[in-house]
Amino acid sequence: MQKPILFLLAPGFEDNDRREYCPECAEMWGVLSYYPAIKEAVDIRYETLAHPRAGLVALLGDGNHNCPTLVLPKGTVIPDGVRVKTVNGYCYLPNAKEIGIYFAKLYGTPVPRGS
């Protein structure tokens, strides 16, 4: 893995007998549209709504299936103030707020509100 992998749910999935989207994944798409350089610096992969989510489980193991999740390449230096989780030798950020804080520290973007 050379780039961080950003796991998202695709917009417009079927659930509850209607089309829906994930608000946190949509937040990440908003950040990526504001800052296209970040979009180019990550590998974006879509997961299904159903569990287990194969791509996440392959890297992080069973029970790690939240989207959005940013999985960092092994050996990534973590900026001060960024709270990561670690499993199978990978550091990862399991929600939009933590991912936004990481992007702010790494790329100088604004921080998510309430951080």
Helix content: 25-40%
What is the arithmetic mean of pLDDT?
Answer: 93
Number of helices: 4
Apparent shape:
globular
Order of helices and strands: EEEHHEHEEEH
Number of strands: 7
Q: Using the CA coordinates, give the radius of gyration.
A: 14 Å
Largest sheet: 5 strands, mixed
Strands of the largest sheet, in order across it?
4-1-5-7-6
Which structural category do the helix and sheet elements fall into? alpha+beta
- Whole-number tally of structural domains: 1
Binned strand content = 15-25%
**In terms of per-residue confidence, which ranges show pLDDT below 50 for 5 or more consecutive residues?**
none
The span between the termini is: 29 Å
Summarize the structure.
The protein has helices spanning 23-34, 36-41, 54-60, 96-107, and strands at residues 5-9, 13-15, 18-20, 43-47, 69-71, 85-87, 90-93. It has 115 residues and is α+β, with helices and mostly antiparallel strands. The radius of gyration is 14 Å and the shape is globular.
Structure write-up:
- This protein has helices at 23-34, 36-41, 54-60, 96-107, and strands at residues 5-9, 13-15, 18-20, 43-47, 69-71, 85-87, 90-93.
- The chain has a five-stranded mixed sheet with strand order 4-1-5-7-6. Strands 2-3 form a two-stranded antiparallel sheet.
- It has one domain.
- The protein has four helices and seven strands.
- The chain starts with a strand and ends in an 8-residue tail after the last helix.
- It is of the alpha+beta class and 115 residues long.
- The model has no long low-confidence stretch (mean pLDDT 93).
- Strand 2 (13-15) and strand 3 (18-20) form a beta hairpin.
- 32% of the residues lie in helices and 23% in strands.
